[in-house]
Specification:
It holds the Pfam family ChaC. Its EC number is 4.3.2.7. One of its GO terms (cellular component) is cytoplasm. By secondary structure, this protein is α+β, with helices and mostly antiparallel strands. The protein has a single domain (about 10-155), classed as Gamma-glutamyl cyclotransferase-like (Hypothetical upf0131 protein ytfp, Roll), CATH 3.10.490. About 30% of the residues lie in helices and about 35% in strands. The chain is built from four helices and six strands, in the order E-E-H-E-E-H-E-E-H-H. Strands 2-1-3-4 form a four-stranded antiparallel β-sheet. The chain has a two-stranded antiparallel ribbon with strand order 5-6. Strand 3 and strand 4 (about 90-95) form a beta hairpin. It starts with 9 loop residues before the first strand and ends in a 7-residue tail after the last helix.
């Protein structure tokens, strides 16, 4: 949300009904590596989640879809209905936790979860920074309470190993 990795026209707060966000993907590349796996967010059935929707220029769609398909390969791409902050409804490309991908853990022991959040580090940085930056991006769009916000104090007390 803080660095989508593509050019966009506008970003807006959005609500996706029927799904909830959970730090459930075992990350072994961007925010973790095999020796120090981290976590990334996944959208799972039930609930409702607030996030950010990006409007892109139609002529940029092929290029952006190429970027996203390479980056979000572990997720299931779907067009989903969501509600924007202005009250309008749109269908938008959304990436869900894939039920057939072995990287997603709907439940995990607390110790493993905390260790992955606190110590996971990969080519894009620490898993803890991913959580902080995501929470900050949500706050910038008016989302002041989320699962990511709830995790910030948890990781603030943790220690991290150096790269």
């Amino acid at each position: 949300m803080w660095d989508p990795g593509f050019e966009y026209v506008r970003a807006a707060r959005a609500t996706l009904p029927g799904w909830h966000r959970r730090m459930s993907m075992i990350a072994t590349n961007s925010y973790g590596r095999p020796s120090r796996p981290g976590l990334a967010a996944g959208l799972h059935p039930r609930g409702s989640v607030e996030g950010v929707a990006f409007l892109v220029a139609p002529d940029k769609c092929p290029e952006i879809l190429d970027v996203l398909s390479k980056r979000e390969w572990a997720y299931l791409a779907v067009m989903a209905p969501m509600r924007l902050a202005d009250g309008s409804s749109v269908r938008a490309l959304t990436y869900l936790a894939s039920p057939v991908n072995g990287r997603f853990r709907t439940t995990q022991p607390v110790g493993d979860f905390l260790r992955r959040l606190s110590h996971g580090v990969g080519r894009k940085g620490y898993a803890a920074d991913y959580v902080r930056q995501s929470a900050e991006a949500l706050s910038a769009h008016g989302v002041r309470q989320s699962d990511l916000h709830d995790l910030v104090p948890v990781i603030a007390g943790g220690t991290r190993f150096r790269r």
